[in-house]
Amino acid sequence: MKVPADMIMISGQDVECDESELTGEPDQKAKVKITDQNSKVGDACYMIGKSLILGGSGKALVVAVGDYSVSGIIEKASSAGSTPTGLQNKLETIATKIGNFGIGCAVLTFSAMLVRVGLEMGGIIPCGCGNITNCVKIEPCTPLTFALTMKNRLWTEIMNTFIIAITVIVVAIPEGLPLAVTIALSFSSAKMRKLNNLVRTLSSAETMGGATHICSDKTGTLTQNKMTVMGLHAYGSIEQVARGGSPLSFATTIKTKISADNFETLQ
C-alpha cells in the first residue's frame, strides 16, 4: 500500500518502504519507531507520503497532508510557472529605461512647443517663428488667439505638438529588441546543436551558454543500471579509464603508480 501522508512511525516492526517515486533511489529503506536517538537525525522513523510500503506492520502519526507534505511541496514546485531568466530581466530593465527616456523626451518636446506658442502669443517672438534662437517673421502669418474656430492656428499648433510627442514615445519603444534577442538565441542553439548539445527551448541556450561547471550524478544509472568510475585525480595528475577498458585494470594501473610510501600516507 501507499503511504497516504507524511507520518512518523511510533510503533511497528519489519517495516520497509520504497521511496523511489519521490527520491529516485530504488533501495528499500527500513523504518523504525521514533526514539530520542533517531528523532533529530536521518529519516529512519519518517515515512514520506506516496511512498510504497513493501512489508511489515506498525502505527504512525500523521504530521503533514496535502500541500504541506513532501510530495505536495514537490508537486507545487514543479507546477509553478517558469521564472524569467537573467537575460529576460536585463532586457526588461533596458526596455523600461529606454521607454522612460522616450517619455521624458516627449514631455520635453511638448513643453518646448508650448513655450514657443506662449512666447509668440505674448509678442516676445515674431509670428510664425519656428526657431526661437533664430526667429524670422513669416508673411503672411495669422496671429495666435483663443478663438474656438477651425481656422485658429493655436489649436493646429497644439495638435501638431501632441502628435510629435506621441511619435517620439512610439519610436522610443524598442519593439525590435525581443526579436533581435530571439534571433541571437536561435543562432546560439544552432551552434550548440553542432556540439551535440540539443536545446529544446531558446531560454535554455542562455543558461547553458553561461554555465562554467556542470556537475552530474548517477553516471550510467539510467542506461546500464550501474555506476562506473571514469577517472581519478591524485597527486596532481588525472588518470582516465580508456574507452571500453575495464575498471579493474584501471585500478591495477593506479596501484602500480602509487608507491608503498604514498599508499601508507593515503591510508
Summary, kept brief:
By secondary structure, this protein is an alpha+beta fold.
What can you tell me about this protein's structure?
There is one protein chain. With 267 residues, this protein is α+β, with helices and mostly antiparallel strands. The chain has four domains: 6-79, no CATH class; 86-172; 177-209, no CATH class; 228-257, no CATH class. Helix content is 43%, strand content 15%. The protein has helices at residues 20-23, 70-79, 86-121, 153-172, 177-194, 202-209, 247-257, 260-266; strands at 6-18, 28-31, 46-47, 52-64, 231-234, 237-240. Strands 1, 2, 3 and 4 form a four-stranded antiparallel β-sheet that branches. A two-stranded antiparallel ribbon has the order 5-6. Strand 5 and strand 6 form a beta hairpin. The mean pLDDT is 76.
Describe the main β-sheet briefly.
Answer: 4 strands, antiparallel
**First-residue to last-residue Cα separation:** 46 Å
The portion of residues forming beta strands comes to: 5-15%
Helix content: 40-55%
Mean pLDDT, to the nearest integer, reads 76
Structural class: alpha+beta
Shape: elongated
Poorly predicted regions: none
Radius of gyration: 37 Å
The total of helices stands at 8
What letter string, H or E per element, gives the SSE order? EHEEEHHHHHEEHH
Number of DSSP-assigned strands: 6
Q: How many domains, as an integer?
A: 4
Layout of SSEs?
Elements: E1 6-18, H1 20-23, E2 28-31, E3 46-47, E4 52-64, H2 70-79, H3 86-121, H4 153-172, H5 177-194, H6 202-209, E5 231-234, E6 237-240, H7 247-257, H8 260-266
Antiparallel strand pairs: 1-2, 1-3, 1-4, 5-6
Helix pairs in contact: 3-4, 5-6
